[in-house]
User: Fold this.
Amino acid sequence: MNTQKQTVKTLQKFGVKPSAQRIAIMDYMTKHYIHPTADTVYSGLVSKMPTLSKTTVYNTLSLLAQKKAIRELHIDEKNVRYDGDISQHAHFCCKKCEKIFDMPIMVEFKALEANGFVITESHQYHWGYCPDCNKALK
Amino acid sequence: MNTQKQTVKTLQKFGVKPSAQRIAIMDYMTKHYIHPTADTVYSGLVSKMPTLSKTTVYNTLSLLAQKKAIRELHIDEKNVRYDGDISQHAHFCCKKCEKIFDMPIMVEFKALEANGFVITESHQYHWGYCPDCNKALK
DNA sequence: CTTATCTTTGTAATCATTACAAATTAGTAA
DNA sequence: TTACTAATTTGTAATGATTACAAAGATAAG
Assistant:
């Protein structure tokens, strides 16, 4: 459904000049809502694109996040993770299995511009135990 | 006002056995609400406690966070930061000057225990431009 | 005092991420 | 096409925060 052409359009919409690598990476991100690390993205693409460099993956994910085509998550203390789903939602990280789950936003964000702060991005992170791990703990 | 004895009591309240190093570090955290990194804490203490090891600072901050005597912040992508103020509040990181500010939480978090998730900790992070940097940008 | 346990220390690794310069690709104009 | 310029990609080598680990030191109980 997400043809290459649509991905090109998406990139352009966010002000990112398309290239084979950028298309592949953006495409991966919109098809894998798994909050992958740069390394995971690289592993998922390198077989189809053998010349792909890890540096390019790092740079491109960073660029896409800066252009707000994807989101950069800091819920995992070990690695930066990226989310191709840019709709408003919170994240949950299980302290046992370390899986990351999407969560509804419970708190509405309101810019505090009155105080002179300009908020361009807000994240809500939760930690705890996911249903499976919680069950296993009992 | 925060005597050594009070710090000992605080540590005990959170289930942390007091020691000279732990008291010094906890004391520092309750007196410096500056969201310091482990390195900053080390630098702030080593002159008064010359044998202090950086490893101890890392381990102790981690322990204190695990026991919920302090909070571990992941709003700064480069370093883990710690907050001695454990009252409910959000954080803001200026993308220009990289200073970290406290922010009010706008709504209470509610655990999603109904779905089987057990939330033990929630953080709300904002990024953008602080009043000073915002003014300077214009 | 002795033994067992807990804590601290210092050094050496780890490893995700970044810096950098060379190589490649794309874009443009003649 | 060709030549020139700019943007992108690549691979390797650093960076630097954090952790692993084992030895040394402190503490508590008997």
